[in-house]
Amino acid sequence: MEDMLLFYCLIHNFLLYLDITDYFTKCSGSIDDLFSKHIEDYPKKIDISKFNEMYSDEIETVLGVTISKDSINKISTFLCMLLTYTYQDQFNISFNAPSSTGKSYIPLEVASLFPEDDVIKTAHCSPTAFFHGHGNFDKDLGGYIVDLSNKILIFIDQPHTQLLQNLRPLLSHDDKEINIKITDKTQKHGLKTKNIKLIGFPTVIFCTAGLNVNEQEATRLLLLSPEITQEKIFDSIKKAIKKGANRAKFNNEIETNPERKLIIERIKSIKECNVKEII
Questions:
Q1: How many angstroms from the chain centroid is the CA of residue 222?
Q2: In this predicted model, what pLDDT tens digit does every residue of 2-55 receive, in sequence order?
Q3: Helix or strand holding residue 116 (H, E)
């Protein structure tokens, strides 16, 4: 195995040397050109000069490609997710509504505009499973480091009560780094305490059919409820029929929509700006 790895490295180095030699001998290349003309930033910088100032009605038009009506809800959700890329200006949303009203559809559709690496979608999840799934074990800490800074957390269903309690300090922005303790069951030693270091701040969105909100959560969340009007239902049914009739064509129309592609690029450029705060 080691001989094969050594052979691969020799071949790789030979090809690299050959390419560089050809550049200088056959292409008359120079060192100055090599390190100026032929080097690009990675990731490639987005040209922000093509972006004009954008107003809420234009945002609504882009979001309306996939989300019918619900003007206030979809714009609020979009701006909420956009604030993810600030240092500490994030806020949280709870969609409270009966089943089949679009309470999870709106945040999931808006989140599709944002980089996949920044979005964490979770259904029902126990407190321990959440920290294990999104944390990295740290030997010195004796537990997990869970870095949720500049992340968008979407709970598609009401999370476990204990998990909500653990996340409360992050929701209220008490401190950017919070240490908590959880208990885990082990086969040999029964219950064992683990340390968790929570790093924030994320944007958190809850989607729940339960209309009763705990008072402690209510003060940390913007409460929204999707529209339930005949006009919205009719428009949603038309979209569903169009999608069901030719799913590939429908998805292609959405993905190639120029305004939608531009706003996706705009979001990436905002992320690259490393905005500290909004004045």
A1: 19
A2: 455 544 444 444 444 456 677 667 677 777 766 666 566 656 677 777 888 889
A3: none
User: How far is the C-alpha of 197 from the C-alpha of 208, rounded, in Å?
Assistant: 27
- Supply 16's token pair: 């690299």
List, in order, residues 6 or more apart from 43 with CB less than 8 Å away.
272
CA distance 83 to 90: 5
How far apart are alpha carbons 242 and 238 in whole angstroms? 6
On the question of a cis peptide bond just before residue 43, with omega within 30 degrees of 0, the verdict is: yes
Q: 160, 202, 214: which is closest to 182 by C-alpha?
A: 160
Neighbours of 177 (CB within 10 A): 12
pLDDT tens digits, one per residue of 80-116 = 999 999 988 999 998 887 777 778 889 999 999 999 9
- Of 268, 136, 111, the C-alpha closest to 202 is 111
Across the range 212-226, mean pLDDT stands at 77
| Nearest alpha carbon to residue 160 among 228, 194, 206 | 206
Burial 103-121 (b: 16+ CB within 10 A, else e): bbbbbbbbbebbeeebbbe
